[in-house]
Structures are given as C-alpha cells and as structure tokens.
Write a structure and sequence with these properties.
Layout: E1 5-9, H1 14-25, E2 29-34, E3 46-49, E4 68-71, H2 75-88, E5 94-97, H3 103-112, E6 118-123, E7 135-139, H4 149-156, E8 160-164, H5 166-192, H6 198-204, H7 207-221, H8 224-232, H9 238-256, H10 260-274, H11 277-292
Parallel strand pairs: 1-2, 1-4, 2-3, 4-5, 5-6, 7-8
Antiparallel strand pairs: 6-7
Helix pairs in contact: 2-3, 5-7, 5-9
C-alpha cells in the first residue's frame, strides 16, 4: 500500500483521532486540522489550527498533495466546510465522510462535485474502545466495486466492514441507533418523573433494570450533540420513533384489555422476526446479566 497524505478535518475529535491512528499505523501521513488549542494529541505529527468555517486565505495549502480529505465533523459543519475544501483540491482527491447521517453530506457533495471520489466511514462503536473485531459501516456510491484502499486500512485494523449506499446507511442507522436511543431516553424521561427514590430503585433493581440504567447513564455521560444528531439529522429516524410510540400504545391497549392471548401472539411474532438472532442475542443477554448479578 502506497503512503498517502490524509488531511483530517476535526482531527482532534474522537473519530478523527481514531482514523488518524489507523492511517498512521498503515504508513500514511495524517494531518490533523482543528480549531482547538487544548489537548493536541501526541500521535498527530502534523497539526494545523484552522477555523474550518472561517479559514484564512492561505489555509487551503494544507490540502496540497493530499490523497484524501476526511470530514470528521458534525453533519452541519461538514456540509458548510465542503465548498471551501472543494475549492482548494483537485477533482481526484478522495472525500471521506464520517457523518452519522450520510445522505445529506453525500447529496451536497454530488450537487457541488458530481465526479469527486467519495467514501463514508462510520465506526459503530465508541472510539475509546479497541477497534479490533468492531463493526464499521463503509458507504459507497456502488457497493459492487473492488475493495477501496481505505477499506484496506480498516481491514488491517481487523475491523468488520459492512458496505452500504448513503440511503441504506441512514435507514439502517434509524433502526440501529435512533430507535434504541429513543427507547432508552423514554425510559429516562419516565424515571425522571418518578417520585420513588433512585437509590432505593438501584438497590433492589434486577438485571434488566440495571442494564437500562447503564445504557441511560452512558448516554448521559457522553456529549449531547452525539445523540441529538442521531435523532435530528437523520430524517429517517422519525419513522421508528413513531413506530415506538405506536407500539407503546398497542402494548398498553392489550394489557388494559386483559388479552393475554394477543400478548402471547405479539411475542411470537417478535420471536419469528428475530429468527436465528434470537438464540444469539439471548446468549448476549445471559453474558451481560452474569456480569451484573
């Protein structure tokens, strides 16, 4: 694999730092571009402090000789920065999006530069965790093309790659991210209005409750922007949220009607939909609960 210069916009963030480490490990040269003045990480041998949304006239020189430009930025910022980047690079430079919602950035790129090379990379795990064996979504115009050089970087890190188009990605994220996060947040909103003492609840909480508390606490410990973007920036997230509300109403109606048969039928439908995944996820749950018990 040839050594390439890769410029990472938002390189001091969690995703930017992760990708910088992966590119560097493969022999590429990572240039970190960020507006932060604190906490510059030691693995960035090339760091440039630039206000991406208000760059100086000569700031585009950082892209000289770059093979790829990584947008490790929130969706709105990435789209705003796109015209400046495109004005400073050639039409053969690879654009890499790490947005949690890919379609809006992809559409903006195609409207401005229809032929610009594009690939999306969305790690489906916290960047603070080891990347080995972790899933990563790779977003492409055409998922039937041969392996991309950036995919080889991810593969060398022993990550599990799943290819999809921008629209497929956002639809999958609506179910994999927006739906579970919404369910956890609803749990938190109900808990916040409960008159019961949380310390008492936590003391007697069985493993399912402790698991939900752990998921809720993880969200509350992380930046709000991460979870806001998952819900707000993805227009496809509205559908599973509405489905969640409908399912709550459906469950409430079944229980209030005392219809155990319909309750069982619904559980059977869910089990049938899960198929082989039922046993896999049941084993995952047993592993989690054995840790908590």
């Amino acid at each position: 694999m040839s050594n390439h210069k890769v410029v990472i916009l938002g390189g001091q963030g969690a995703i930017g730092s992760l990708l910088s480490r992966l590119f560097t490990r493969c022999g590429h040269i990572a240039y970190s571009v960020d507006n932060r003045t604190q906490g510059v990480r030691s693995h960035h041998s090339h760091y440039y402090q630039i206000d991406i949304l208000n760059p100086a006239a000569d700031a585009g020189e950082v892209f000289s000789g770059a093979k790829a430009i990584v947008f490790a930025l929130p969706e709105a910022v990435a789209i705003q920065a796109l015209p400046w980047v495109l004005s400073a690079i050639g039409d053969d430079v690879q654009i890499v999006s790490t947005c949690s919602v890919q379609a809006p950035f992809y559409s903006a790129l195609r409207a401005a530069a229809p032929g610009q090379p594009f690939i999306g990379v969305n790690p489906m795990f916290s960047p603070s965790l080891p990347e080995q064996k972790r899933p990563v979504a790779v977003i492409l115009d055409n998922c039937h093309v041969s392996k991309h050089w950036i995919e080889r970087v991810l593969a060398q890190a022993d990550m599990r790659i799943s290819r999809m188009t921008p629209e497929e990605h956002d639809r999958v994220m609506a179910l994999c991210q927006a739906l579970p996060h919404a369910a956890i947040l609803i749990f938190g909103l109900v808990l916040a209005k409960s008159p019961l003492d949380i310390r008492t609840l936590a003391t007697i909480a069985p493993p399912p409750m402790r698991t939900m508390l752990a998921l809720l606490s993880r969200i509350l410990r992380n930046p709000i922007e991460v979870y806001w973007d998952v819900q707000y920036e993805n227009p496809m997230a509205a559908e599973p949220r509405q489905a969640l509300l409908h399912a709550i109403q459906q469950l409430n109606s079944i229980v209030q009607a005392g219809d155990q048969t319909e309750f069982g039928n619904n559980l059977g439908d869910i089990a049938q939909q899960l198929g082989e995944q039922l046993d896999i996820s049941a084993a995952d749950c047993q592993h989690i609960f054995s840790t908590l018990e």
